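Thread: sanity check for a docking pose with zinc ion

Original post by kr_44:
Hi all, I'm comparing my docking run against an independent structure prediction. Below are the sequence and the ligand SMILES. Could someone generate the full complex and paste the structure tokens? I mainly care about where the ligand ends up relative to the chain.
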Amino acid sequence: MIEHPPSRGLYMLAWLGVWSTSWFAILCLGIIAIFAFRWPWLLMIALPTFLVSQIAFIALAFFFRCPSCGHFVFIQGWRPMHPARKRVLAGLGIASWIAVAVDIARNRQFTCMHCGERCTARV
Ligand SMILES: [Zn+2]
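Reply from moderator J.T.:
Ran it for you. Here is the predicted complex with zinc ion included:
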């Protein structure tokens, strides 16, 4: 267990990631609503909200690195990731960064997807 330097920013950014992901789910519902009910308002609200929050999240994600290996906490990149990492939809192995964001937001801890080290994220 390695301690991340106390960081309110990392905690806030994790919540931004969770928030943005929730809007992605609403966006998908909005697309269904257009086809099912010809009702565009949900999509018109969800699309810009998701895009702005996701762009902000990605931009801010470049400020936070794993204290153990030095790779970006939320940026997956193209290199193979550590088998001990947490995953959303573990069977498919996708969206590791969402699992990291949820872990920090709920438990103030995360498992680095690059080195597999368990880190605390104190505020
Ligand atoms: Zn790491």
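The longest strand covers residues 118-121. Hope that helps with the comparison, let us know if your pose agrees.
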